[in-house]
Amino acid sequence: MAKPTLQSRSRLAGFATEIGGISLREICDISIISIAKPLHDHALFDQNFIELFNQAPPLAPTSLRLKSPNCRVFQTQIDQWFVIGETNTIQDKFDYVTDQSDGWVALEISGENVILALERICPIDLHTDKFLIGHFARTMMEHMGCIILRTDTQTYQLFSASSSAESFLHAVETSIHNVT
Amino acid sequence: MTQINRLSGGKINRDKPCTFTFNGKILQGYQGDTLASALLANGINLVGRSFKYHRPRGIFSAGSEEPNALVQLRQAASNEPNTRATVTELYDGLYATSQNHRGPLNFDLMAATDLLSPFLGAGFYYKTFMWPRAFWEKLYEPIIRASAGLGKLSGEEDPDIYDKGFLHCDLLIIGAGPAGLAAARVAAHAGAQVIIADEDFLLGGRLNSERHEIDGIPADQWASETLAQLQEFGNVRILPRTTVLGAFDHGIYSALERKTDHQLHSNGKPRQVLWRIYSKRAILASGATERSIAFPNNDRPGIMLAGAVRSYAKRYGVAAGKQISIFTNNHSGWQIAQDLVDQGVKITAIVDTRDIPPPATFSGVAIMMGTQVVNTTGRKALRSITLSNGHVIQTDCLAVAGGWSPNVHLTCHQRGRPEWRNDIAAFVPSKSRPVGMSVVGAANGDLTLGAAIKSAHQTTNAVLKSIGFQTKRTQPPRAIDEAFAITPFWHVANQKHRAWVDLQNDVTTKDIKLSQTEGFHAVEHLKRYTTLGMATDQGKTSNVLGLAVMAEMLGKPIPETGTTIFRPPYTPVAMGALGGRARDKNYAPIRKTPSHQWASEQNAVFVETGNWLRAQWYPKLGETHWRESVDREVLATRKSVGICDVTTLGKIDIQGTDAAAFLNFIYANPFLKVPVGKVRYGLMLREDGICYDDGTTARLGENHFVMTTTTANAVLVYRRMEFARQCLCPEMDVHLISTTDAWAQYAIAGPNSRALLAKIVDNQDLSNEVFPFMACGEITICNGIPARLFRISFSGELAYELAVPTRYGDSLIRALMAEGQEFDATPYGTEALSVMRIEKGHVVGNEINGTTTALNLGMGGMVSQKKDSIGATLSQREVLINDNVVRLVGLQPVDKSHALQAGAHFLELGSKPTTQNDLGWMTSVAHSPTFGHSIGLGFVKNGHMRHGDIIRAWDGIRGRDIPVKIVSPHMYDPEGAIQRG
């Protein structure tokens, strides 16, 4: 008997909007893995990392942006990194890998007054000369744990728990509404 | 009514008239007015009634220190009581009413209270209404509360919205008067990130009210030009209408920005924003507040602070009276007189308590040195003052200049105690102020303009250097050091009439005398005994005066009498602003399970479990009671197959060569030898041996485990494990990461669960031989979708838990229900889940409640003493393992028609309900459709030895007392044959 087919569904159904010059959209079908450095085998991990990414593992708050493989890497805690993007070819290179793709909802927010909106919920200092392009931080927004990543001059990506995706979206959307 | 007291000039926009309503009267002011200045311009000074005696009260100040002019602002649900008219920015359509009176303001029926004042001294209610005791709450207090007080809340939901936010800066400057602006100029040029906040809507502070020059131009012009320059700097953020409320640890300050309070409508935007400001350094430039002098009947409308009279004239173009007199003990009173004359205001007399030559002369102004005001007349408006030399002066406004108190409030927010300075007769900040805070200008006791600017300039340079900024060598702006000499004079002694110290709380010098007589000398006692310094103004104009009067009465210097300190907030904050967005359904984040949408389509009834919304039951058409739905779900599951979303259980991915050893340390029972492909139930203990949490952990690989925790403890368990990993077991190679949200997980339970699963799994043999009870594996379903399958059972049935990446969660529940149609597959919610776990005797938070041990739960044997694990040693304390401890049992009513009650206590038959006779308590109850009656779980002393005994379940709160039979907690399938089948 034919088995049923399962459909993939993003938590916010591909939400996208623009309010007062600030655009906000869900980044769908994102792939995230965490990789961890074995306690007793740092050298091998570092060697594998450099072979793969041509650089040493980045330390917070700096992230590493690569074109091949097409991904971004940033440190989420001591000896742990997230790789976001093209992760299929990476997984086998490391011992401790956990698929995090479905644990997060990802939003991209951009626009001229984006910092005015973010400062309503983000406790991090986002002054552009302090939180540089490529910087990221783990923080809380409206009681929800999240990661904020600056990808461009006026563009940020926000990652938060997928189960509270709607509340997170509401928090960000409200912030935009309140300042535009 | 025309604006009879309007002068020329002022910083108001006469091209923008504003129509407003006060007590039903339609009036007009201008943009740039406050409600107070507009009322004065219209000749209205009677604006309220006093707190206790219902005395007529007028506008007293021109700032946030205002004790008198409190009004109800706006209407209906938007009504806000106790709003200070002196800081309420006028807008077109403003609606205000006076408060705390019965009948019209002009004829307050409660004014008779004033006649009873001899009986209403400080603390009268404590002494008078002592008996009968029962009358206090029911009679006395309601009457007192109704007759005394401030404004009234609407009782309706606040229709406004509020927001919060976070700001960061190198330098926070609190106050945008001359010192604050001078500081901002230096910091802006140095390139520091600067925030300058001021509670006023027009920045410049005293510069807008006085007639000095800075750098050769009028001071107000200097202020506006400086502001314009600051606005050009990208590194300076100017926050008008923003009160810095509190100073907290690590350079954090709270500030309230009033975004739309100056508008009729907020247009859907937040009315106020509560900021948390992170600063490297802060400069307090909050200025000083003028004090009054306590003299008989000094509370009449028309008696005002002298600086306020000048502000109304210069800044707002309003004369506070037609014939103004000045009563002073210092030189600022004379400066104010000069400013008023220059502004075209008529001065009648200057009365100075000091016996010195007059500092100035004014044509047509009576000058009395070494003289005091000893009485006043005029019920609803000042008519005359009587002087100590016997003169009576007809005047409608008395400007009182009692000296200046630096606004030290924020320096006290971390218990800093100000120091007394005799030369200015005021408290100034001591060195014990918040770390990183510097104080400049009048707030630091530099009361002259030149000194204020100079200190701000120098201090800011030093502060910036301390955090690594290079500052340019510049000279501070030039300004004069005006005369400010003061000879303290606090109050006019008079036995006959009352002299007010605290206008807002109706505290007089007599009250202070009473406090002193009755032994309440300490400042803290004085405040609580008399209410001095309480309510919305927090004693800004009265604290120092009250303390000085007490010092005189005690015959001690002020520093020896005490020091008054302050706590946040600096000014009152609306509760809505503190709540911010956290209201209604946005009070807290909501977590939804992957099946939420589908469950909503089935009309599921949801319950909050932590932040999660879980389906509680799924009512079907025709079902009229939740029990019908739950019973059906239980029976259908036990008969065929039921499906429950268990995604909410915490999931922790554990990897590392020491993962097994780590789990062996975390759990009380052994985990070292769990085979790959197997699940084991685990029990965690606290360090003291009490149970912490339980769950199952699956070994997916040699170095890879997946733990499930209870829903409620998911975060706590993860945090606890992370602590153990980093601090207790740093030598272990183990890595943790939460995957709770990454997997959608469904329990599939019932005799047909295997058959249903077989329809969707790819190439996985589900037979008992290949995939037995407590097996687990990483599989695929539905042609290649990655999944995890666990053969575990919470219901006691043949059961599985199937997990797929969350993105497939919605689709999977739909597929399971579609494929399960041939088995009458039934979704079940948390209620049915609970019923089945009670039938089976599985414990949850009701039983693992922070007081129970493994032994209590019937799992004492699981706590291995052959290994080191958290809590293993202390779990063996004698008090926890003696024969008399409570044990988990099942309970059934002897009369099967009785319903059991959770929380009931157990007693022997015939024994009295006393603590000594208490045998234990009922933890969980349910109606079991499987057994057809109520069942329960509970703890009974030595209960494991008493199966079959009858005891009482006594519930004193609900008045129930029924006999129950002790049975095994495993009421359903006690041998476990079904779940292993």
Summarize the structure.
By secondary structure, chain A is of the alpha+beta class. Helix content of chain A is 18%, strand content 36%.
Structural class of chain B: alpha+beta
Beta-strand residue fraction of chain A: 35-45%
Distance between the termini of chain B: 93 Å
Described by the principal axes of the CA atoms, the overall outline of chain B is elongated
CATH topology of the largest domain in chain B: Gyrase A, domain 2
Largest interface: A-B, 53 and 62 residues
Task: Characterize the largest beta sheet of chain A: strand count, sense, and whether it forms a barrel.
Answer: 6 strands, antiparallel
Can you tell me about this structure?
- Chain A is α+β, with helices and mostly antiparallel strands.
- Chain A is 18% helix and 36% strand.
- Chain A is built from 3 helices and 11 strands.
- A 6-stranded antiparallel beta sheet of chain A has the order 1-2-8-11-10-9, covered by helices on one side. A 5-stranded antiparallel beta sheet of chain A has the order 4-5-6-3-7, with no helix packed on it.
- Chain A starts with 15 loop residues before the first strand and ends with a helix.
- The model of chain A has no long low-confidence stretch (mean pLDDT 95).
- Chain B is an alpha+beta fold.
- Chain B has 6 domains: 150 residues, Roll (Ubiquitin-like (UB roll)), CATH 3.10.20; 186 residues, FAD/NAD(P)-binding domain (3-Layer(bba) Sandwich), CATH 3.50.50; 106 residues, FAD/NAD(P)-binding domain (3-Layer(bba) Sandwich); 70 residues, Arc Repressor Mutant, subunit A (Orthogonal Bundle); 194 residues, Probable tRNA modification gtpase trme, domain 1 (Gyrase A, domain 2); 99 residues, Elongation Factor Tu (Ef-tu), domain 3 (Beta Barrel), CATH 2.40.30.
- Chain B contains 22 helices and 50 strands.
- The N and C termini of chain B lie far apart (93 Å).
- The model of chain B has no long low-confidence stretch (mean pLDDT 95).
- Classes of the chains: A alpha+beta (180), B alpha+beta (981).
- Chains A and B meet through strand 7 and helix 3 of A and strand 8, strand 15, strand 31, strand 39 and helix 19 of B.
- Chain B: Belongs to the GcvT family.
- Chain B: It holds the Pfam family GCV_T.
- Chain B: Keywords: Oxidoreductase.
- Chain B: This is Sarcosine oxidase subunit alpha.
